[in-house]
Specification:
- The relative contact order is 0.08.
- This protein folds into 4 domains: about 10-190, Histidine kinase-like ATPase, C-terminal domain (Heat Shock Protein 90); about 205-315, Ribosomal Protein S5, domain 2 (2-Layer Sandwich), CATH 3.30.230; about 335-395; about 405-584, 2-Layer Sandwich (formyl-coa transferase, domain 3).
- The chain has an 8-stranded mixed beta sheet with strand order 5-4-3-6-2-1-7-8. A 5-stranded mixed beta sheet has the order 9-10-15-12-13, with helices on both faces.
- By secondary structure, the chain is an alpha+beta fold.
- Helix content is about 35%, strand content about 20%.
- Helix 7 runs parallel beside helix 8.
Amino acid sequence: MSVRILPDYLINQIAAGEVVENGASVVKELVENALDAGANQIIVDIVDGGRTLINVVDNGSGMSRDDLKNCIMRHATSKLPDDNLMNINFMGFRGEALPSIASVSDMAIDTCNGTDENGWHMDCNTGEIRPSDWQSGTRIRVQNLFAKTPARLKFLRSDRVETMAVLDVIKRLGMARNDVGFVLNNKWRFEKDQPLIDRIVAVMGDDVRGRMRTVSAESGAMKLTGYISEPTLRRASSVDQFLFVNGRPVKDKVLVGALRAAYMDVMHAREFPLCALYLTLPSANVDVNVSPTKNDVHFLEPSHVRAFIIKALREVLAQNMVDCAPAVQSQNFENKISFDNAPIVTPHLRPVSMAPMVHSPNAVQNPFAQKLMSDFGAINEMRVAHIQNNIDDIFDNMPLGRVIGQIANKYILSATADSLVVVDQHAAHERITYEKLRTHTIKSQPLLTPIVVRLRAEDVVAVLSIADDLRESGLHIDSFGDDAVAIFEKPADWDMDWASALHAIADEVRAYGHSSGLQEKLHLKLANYACHHSVRAGQKLNMEQMNALLRDIEKTEHGGECNHGRPVYKFIPITQIDGWFERV
């Protein structure tokens, strides 16, 4: 069979197989084009999940007649003026979307650039262009998606599922550009110039209001901004994770891995935090020309990017719901509890209600002596009462207040100056135990006989490149020839299939430039230990133990939540209690 050059229509249909998967992918390409054209208002209408109709209208710059003619030609684009693929500042650039969409549907375009005397209409099936009364911006109308490639129709899902996929595209692009207004089917609407936090609430739901934490960090030319959820706010999937690189929505594994690592100590591995994170870095340090969908990117220094993001997010997460640590560090109990300033009670001021001294048969019966002993008892009890009040005042001003009791042997009840506080005693002690374990140096166990693991040469190089990181987790390895590594020390009391572990670590390093697998396993081990060696629900505690637990959790990192992400304490404002009893 001889080699032949494929016709353009077939080339476009092949390209469409990569670019056009469903109605959502069509909407994504068309809306990105509208954004690149400077639009700040985009209206999308779909019928039957995009199968029957996709209509996208924008108020962007529009096109001239010549640009309209060229826009459906393969690899025709206005977005690479200097032919530099490493300096891409537009959403699209490949010049594949419009010809690919036109090759699998019936597409028509109306446009006007504002300088021509009239607008223009093009039937993309015939290529015919004629004047129209379209006045500004562009409208692209896509009908009968995959009518020209019927085999693709059977891979489309239900209309409802396809509509939800389109909505997800609008959400992600809407989160990328909160300065732009979006409307879908006149039902879902994002207002133009909407504050980012308001758009986050509109996209993620009302339950996030007041529970998102601001992120703002810089390292050299890199900058990270946005919002992440407090650890007690989580989802069962990654549906509310929005990640952007230089304004482009991405689903990058380096970013996802960094997000997961940042929450490792405060959220269960099967749960997902919410986020809207915007990473900005020089265009030369990231390659967006990885796939036709442009969802993936390659970083020049992925390990550096990952470390920067983890550090930035952990610093935000360390700011607990109550900023406990500074308050505790500023307190000096011995100095605050002043014995010298206790009131001196003179005999004639002795309260008449003071409890009498215990009578003894051998007690002195002299009236003067009796009065002296009685006055001394009053003075002593008043000084003790003053000291106790002093302690209570200090505890009242502590972040978690003064213990007043225990409920159902599960919860500690305490009071601050303006709130009632309910503390989960198991969650509190679990966090304290976990942090103490985590901050101690991990003990390594030397092996009498090193464990030799055979690997491919490239895997040996990959694993050894992070040998120092593995050493911090208690695993000491070194090369053992060109195709093996030897394990000389392992984390104490920790047995596992090290060959499988090192193969998995090598795969991660080669793919992402790093590996968090061993660290995640260590985290799980410590978390399980902390859970099973902490105060249990149902365990009765005395006042001293409960106050000590509160003081410890106040100065513990991530004290607001246990290492599974559950809340440790809840505040009930006195004003709310007043409302219950209609005292407002």
